[in-house]
Amino acid sequence: MMGRIRSSDGTRDESVRTSIVVFAVLVSLLILGSVSGATAWGSKGHRIIGLLARELSPETSAEIETIMGSADLATFGLYLDENKDRLEEQIPGSRAWRYDNIPICGRKSHSEYCPNGACASTQIARHQDILADPHESKARKQFAIWVLTHLVGDIHQPLHTADHDDRGGNLIQVRLPWGQGQSSCGLGH
To answer: Of residues 113 and 173, which shows the higher confidence score?
Structure first.
């Protein structure tokens, strides 16, 4: 998550970078292997990602605790969803940060599917830069951690990184044979 943190000699901390790669692979495998229903991503998915992120390097965890007052990444990952209406009022377009709507058919430039930087990949880079900047305020760094813990999870959800004119899979109806009776819901929920 904090891959742009630099060690004291100014070089990129490779252990943090390795932690991010391992984290991404573990999240993908865990989510794909444990999904119990179409609504499984939501808060449960973000909490799982936060729990996995605790396996970052001790240095990164210590920095997070210094900034946030705790290292409860499982709770931090819920912030954007729990505050989406307020954030949309304060930061218009922030709901679009959760997606990279890359067309699955045809081609669009990054600026077409991410207008004004309102997509996950641009916001992840932007908020990593905020964390890496020693001149940024503590409040901006806290917000960056909330954003990153959420968006790193979102960007690893396949339906948040492709666009098939289906609203993130929400227009694709699926029938689930388990639970009380049979239910139908959007795939992206």
So the answer is: 113
